[in-house]
Amino acid sequence: MKCRMCEGRRLFEFLDLGSTPPADEFKTAEQLRQPDTYYPLQVWMCEDCGLAQLGYVVAPEILYQNDYPYESSTTQAGRDHWAGFAGSVVSELGLEPDQLVVDIGSNVGVLLEAFKSNGMRVHGVDPAPNIVEKAVERGIDTTCAFFGADSAREIVAAKGRASVITGTNVFAHIDDLASFAEAVVLLLDDDGALIIEAPYFANLVADTEYDTIYHEHLSYISVRPVVKFFRRFDMEVFDVQRMEIHGGSLRIFVGRTGRRPVSPEVERLLAEEEESGLHDRETLSTFASAVRQNRQDLLALLHGLKIEGKTVVGLSAPAKGMTLLNYCRLGKQVLDFVTEKSPLKIGRFTPGGHIPVVPDEELLRVQPDFALLLAWNFADEIMCNLDEYRRRGGRFIIPIPTPRIVD
Predict the structure, then answer these.
(1) N or C: which terminus of the chain has fewer CB atoms within 10 Å of its end residue's CB?
(2) Model confidence over 341-371: pLDDT tens digits?
(3) Are 167 and 254 in contact (CB under 8 A)?
(4) CATH of domain 76-281
(5) Coil, strand or helix: which one is 241?
(6) Where are the domains of the chain?
(7) Distance (Å, rounded) from C-alpha 191 to C-alpha 327?
């Protein structure tokens, strides 16, 4: 095995979450007759550059091109985040009307809609046919493909080079990062910026966010390996911003070397990672112990409630929740059902545990005693929306970083 960024071979495994099905493989009732396919889910650290990465890579065609069920517009907090993202980028980079913004892994086009409302020309690239169809219906020009040199050249030929390329929660999904960077170089204007947003590995470790780990997320991003990686392509990280979304994320700005002043925040975060020992064996061993303890505590809490005769359901069905359910071996014997607002998942069954996914309205109709909040990163919004459930006596369980009951 070699590092996805620096190609070094000095890696060590620090976390083993067993084997799980793909986190977005929600099956229909008919598909339940077919066996589940489980893939190893172990995380390794590169001692040369500091990248955390999965040891096993599931083919992207399996993950993204078979009835992909994720839509980026599901929560209000998410929509607000994308709107703020577009507005701040236009302002901070001084973009002029009609400059081209390309979003890689553009999903249904929520971020590009926000850039469009700010006067930009936009184009998306996404490999999931069912999702691209929805984006086109919303008026977002979208290429159905995995991003690479071919799609980059096609966009340049049709629309010119991009002033901004965004990759929100997609850079960490890519196996061949060198080819990705080469395609960015082809597509990006000389003074343009690539903007990557991904969950921050420092938050994952500090707050025991192990459910962020699943097969789509091949890399777990920190500043140190990204800075080193882009130097290979005559590019540099010129700014880094910490964001609250998804339990703590990084927004990384990359441009051609010497084109923009480098923010002191880059060096500050590099120093902070070094001082905290983020990439060290001891730190990661402590994290792995915390993950095992979380599973033990959550199982004790849930099994205790079931022994008392309490009813428990899952609340929302994000990919991260499927890692938690499968790692903790939580199935229909503990959770009666999982609620969801996305029509792409309702009526299906969770990967591995085959828990039925029902509409959110079932929570109030059934009124279970407890709801395990799987999308804990949007806990405030979800609990606010379900205040009626709470008024009727329902209680929430938040599993990360420490399992706890919220009245």
Answers:
(1) C
(2) 888 899 999 999 999 999 999 999 999 999 9
(3) no
(4) 3.40.50.150
(5) strand
(6) 76-281
(7) 45
